[in-house]
Amino acid sequence: MESTEYDILNYDKLKKQLSFNFAENKAINDLNIKPDAFIPVLFSLKFGGDWSFKTSELEAMAVKEKITRYNENTGEGYTLERVTLFVNPCLISNEGKVLRLEKCGAKNERELVERPFRVKLDAEDIVQAELNPKIMEISLKRIKGPLSFSGSAAYGVSHEIEHLAGCERTGKFLWEFKYRVQG
Ligand SMILES: [Zn+2]
Prior knowledge:
Blueprint: H1 5-31, H2 35-47, E1 51-54, E2 59-71, E3 76-95, E4 98-102, E5 111-115, E6 118-132, E7 137-142, E8 147-150, H3 152-165, E9 172-173
Antiparallel strand pairs: 1-2, 2-3, 3-6, 4-5, 5-9, 6-7, 6-8
The structure holds zinc ion (ZN).
């Protein structure tokens, strides 16, 4: 069969994907981290959001923060994604109570839950991944705990810690809210 332009494009894509997978494996190796522990980072980078993963040997969770850097003068910017991976995390403290609606990937409805506004946690191992869409780079570095998060990332930590502990709370649903028309 003659090779078409389409085949060449597909071949190029496949080649890039294979070398991406190779670089991914090399990064995991260079970091000297168990491949299982890195899974939540891969999920967070590939599918977005926060993820946790548990085996009989380890617990791991990845929490994503989105940081937009915008230049008012040029009118240009980008959203950096910072994914922090915690291997065998341990929660040190919770502060505040925030009511919010959350949609868990494992459920099909949003629920009203209470989350801490601020959390402090540590882990056996902490790795920070930063995806920069401007330079198309994913950088990885090991960092020292304990770390504190507030707002969105704190809600994510609390949600994923609950998954790891296997004690998800169930809250009220949207259809239990009342509508009120003002005026
Ligand atoms: Zn969830």
